[in-house]
Amino acid sequence: MTGRAIVTEHTPDPQLREAFLGGMSHAACTVNIVTTDGVAGRGGVTVSAMTSVSADSPKPTLLVCVHHEASAAPLILENGNFCVNLLRDDQSFISDTFAGRFKEEFADKFDCAEWAPMATGAPRVVDPLVAFDCKLVSAERIGTHHVFVGEVQDIFTANRGTPLIYANRAYGRTVRIDPVTTFATSQSDTALRVGCFHTIGPFVVPRIIGEFTKNDSTDLRLMDGDHRRLIEGLRAGDVDLALMFDLDLPDDIETVQLADLSPYILLAEDHPLAAEPNLTLETLTQHPMVLLDSQPSADYALSIFAAEHLTPQVKYHCPSYEMVRAMVGEGLGYSILASKPASNLSYDGHSLVRRPLPSDTRQCPTVMAYRQGAKLPPAAEPFMELCKDLFK
């Protein structure tokens, strides 16, 4: 094993340091427990800085960064081995334990899980997503951290699960992002590709399409998604027009105003507030809220309270519009929505009622959006004119 120390003597620039930490907080990393065992004893630490080095060396190599004050650091150096346990998204408790958050509950951090020895002797969580058993081949001290490079001796891979992710200073899990959902496709170069925000589309787009196709034979390609996916589609040229909310849209997206939707309070028919015709935001803060956790809907709903210096009791976060309606129908809380479905029943048959928000509540502008400078197909203009007429 080779190594050298690079330890800076000067005082770091505090502003640059904070900016660096803030920037790095947006980098999504897997959560790993790095363990070791041998002549120096057993130790482990939670680490997010882990990456591959090379798959084409005599044996694959990876590196981890461990703070020099971590109790596991000198043990790894003396034992000459470490195991990288890449955790599943249901194993954040193990991460918290090895990060030192449960010192009173566990005198020995290893008591929080079951372990099995790897070939080097380093402990492996019995059922991580992946475990890399490594022989230490290089160690460098750079600033406050040791950079350990390990030569992989053995690999354990589970047959289920997804990785635990750390980003924006919180745990998360991976969500597969498929291409924007396509309901109908056309091979025609003159096809009109229309996107719609997923909470608006089902309630207005079928009628728009029905009216449009009475007098126009243009092939239509219909897509739906959240704002981020629609904006990406517009920028990439996968979407010509997008029906969406005009909330914090970027400067390169042009819009045609359609209508201002009035947000409303959604309640179960037997909710204690359902009998009150005029509810205040202050009254709502005394009850649990089911938040439609899809952007920009979530930020919009929360901003309504923030404008009055109030904080709602968000008990449930859910990205699905129909799931939110079902949870409200079950009596789990109220919600604030803008899209008005045709039915006053939730998907599973619960009766729902709508109550208005205070009259001075900020409206939710609905627009037809397109990319600035985009060459739109011939059918785009008549389609937008039809939308303007129907929304009136």
Q: Layout of SSEs?
A:
Elements: E1 5-6, H1 14-24, E2 29-30, E3 32-36, E4 43-47, E5 50-54, E6 61-67, H2 72-79, E7 81-86, H3 92-98, E8 115-117, E9 123-125, E10 130-142, E11 145-157, E12 164-167, E13 170-173, E14 181-184, E15 192-197, H4 201-215, E16 220-225, H5 227-236, E17 241-245, E18 253-261, E19 264-268, H6 281-284, E20 288-292, H7 297-306, E21 313-318, H8 321-329, E22 335-337, E23 352-356, E24 364-371, H9 380-391
Parallel strand pairs: 1-10, 15-16, 15-17, 20-21
Antiparallel strand pairs: 2-12, 3-4, 3-7, 5-6, 6-11, 7-10, 8-9, 10-11, 12-13, 14-16, 17-24, 18-24, 19-22, 19-23
How would you characterize the overall build of this protein?
With 392 residues, the protein is α+β, with helices and mostly antiparallel strands. The protein folds into 3 domains: 5-173, Pnp Oxidase, Chain A (Roll); 181-261 and 365-391, D-Maltodextrin-Binding Protein, domain 2; 264-362, Periplasmic binding protein-like II (D-Maltodextrin-Binding Protein, domain 2, 3-Layer(aba) Sandwich). The chain is 22% helix and 34% strand. It has 9 helices and 24 strands. It has helices spanning 14-24, 72-79, 92-98, 201-215, 227-236, 281-284, 297-306, 321-329, 380-391; strands at residues 5-6, 29-30, 32-36, 43-47, 50-54, 61-67, 81-86, 115-117, 123-125, 130-142, 145-157, 164-167, 170-173, 181-184, 192-197, 220-225, 241-245, 253-261, 264-268, 288-292, 313-318, 335-337, 352-356, 364-371. The strands form 6 sheets. Strands 1, 3, 4, 5, 6, 7, 10 and 11 form an 8-stranded mixed beta sheet that branches. Strands 14-16-15-17-24-18 form a 6-stranded mixed beta sheet, with helices on both faces. It has a 3-stranded antiparallel beta sheet with strand order 2-12-13, with no helix packed on it. The longest helix is centred in the middle third of the chain and has 15 residues, at 201-215. The chain is elongated, with a radius of gyration of 27 Å.
